[in-house]
Amino acid sequence: MLKKTLLAAVAVLAFAGAAAAEDLKEFRIGILGGENEADRLKSYQCMVDQLPAVLGVEKVSLFPAADYDGVVQGLLGGTLDFAELGASGFAKIYLANANAVEPMLTTVQTDGSMGYYSVMVARKDKGYKTLADLKGKKLGFADPDSTSGYLVPLVTLPGSIGAPVKEYFSSTGFGGGHENLVLEVLKGNFDAGTTWASGVGEFKDGYTSGNLRKMVDKGILNMDDVVELWRSPLIPNGPYVVRTTMSAESKQKFKDYMMKLPETDPACFKAVTAGENKGFTEVNVDFYKPIIDARKATIGG
């Protein structure tokens, strides 16, 4: 067993060294699941068009995963170079291999904050007014690796309902990503569900950014049809991560491009960040330590 472990470690180190020495010819972007694939590809098309010249690569490829774990495994396996993650998704990678990716940037909301919220929504015509109305009902989560769609509600909801989540609700399940979850709530397959929102701006607009705002902008959600029944404490905005073994030069070129994006291409910035945001700011692992600790204690790796 020890011999196999040592051989595996040597193989990982050899791969990392080779990757570091290799010229970057293709930049591979992972895209989290849960939204219509055509919409996800459309949101990142501007980066496909612009990044070859910025990074000096032959092409930029998009890899829309079916779920969060598809991107997580791609980053762990070194087959992706960049992705936007939720904090819990990053925590999963960090707990598996702390050296796989580097958190580089995160978004700054229009009010200057660096966080967002998990919000629980239900259909307005159901007549639910408070969490008490949901006792014994069906609760939907977005994805097992979602911060706002699973980890944070799992950890913080008990303080609001006075019981563990699985004891308070008749059943829980996953909607297959944030957009799909809200659609399942609208269909009546869940009585309520947790998704993400900036919490800045007006509820009637879907707030300034987040899943609700994206759905409103796409014309697939009317905020008059839903109510918000619960909001979490502030969650650290998810990181934009890059493969650690990318060259320092490539990392810097990419970071410079991203930092300037709100001014050079506001439409691209809005598409990539899911709504109205102020800009990007640099972050490191320390910013996500509370989420890493929470995931380790609650879900594990």
From TrEMBL:
Keywords: Signal
Pfam families: Phosphonate-bd (PF12974)
Highest taxon, organism lineage: Bacteria
CDD domains, per the entry: PBP2_PhnD_like
Record keyword Protein biosynthesis present: no
Keyword check for Signal: yes
Signal peptide segment: 1-21
Matching PANTHER family: PHOSPHONATES-BINDING PERIPLASMIC PROTEIN
Family: Belongs to the phosphate/phosphite/phosphonate binding protein family.
Protein name, entry field: Phosphonate ABC transporter substrate-binding protein
Native source organism of the sequence: Rhizobium alvei
Gene expressing this chain: phnD
